[in-house]
Specification:
Layout (H helix, E strand, L loop, with lengths): L1 H19 L7 H29 L10 H27 L25
Helix pairs in contact: 1-2, 2-3
Length: 118
């Protein structure tokens, strides 16, 4: 499953970049999209490091439990949770690229972030 996710991450990165191009500089939506992107890029790097350790490291570790793999997997879990929360907030709280609320303050340039009331 991890290998499949790594293989499809290129397509999700491209669609995310295309969505990012729709954001305006200086808006809360852009800052949230940047945080989501940084989190997901970090996740991709951790996944690639884990795959390397499992399948390409000298001696091979794919069938051997290890503390290092456990830590890598926990890091993946944390990053997936954080990235999914940020992406879900963009979509479901603010309607980004779903049902855009252009009159919402998060779409207007501002240095002040708004906490969603829900």
């Amino acid at each position: 499953m991890i290998l499949f996710g790594a293989a499809t991450s290129l397509l999700t990165t491209l669609t995310g970049f295309a969505d990012w191009l729709d954001t305006d500089k200086g808006t809360q939506i852009r800052r949230m999209a940047n945080a989501h992107a940084i989190t997901m890029i970090a996740l991709t790097l951790v996944v690639l490091a884990g795959l390397w350790y499992r399948y390409l490291a000298p001696g091979g570790h794919s069938d051997m439990p290890s503390g290092i793999l456990a830590l890598v997997d926990l890091a993946m879990l944390g990053l997936v949770t954080l990235g999914g929360t940020l992406g879900g907030s963009l979509t479901y709280d603010w309607g980004f690229n779903v049902e855009t609320a252009g009159d919402s303050p998060v779409y207007h340039p501002s240095q002040t972030d708004i906490i969603h009331p829900n």
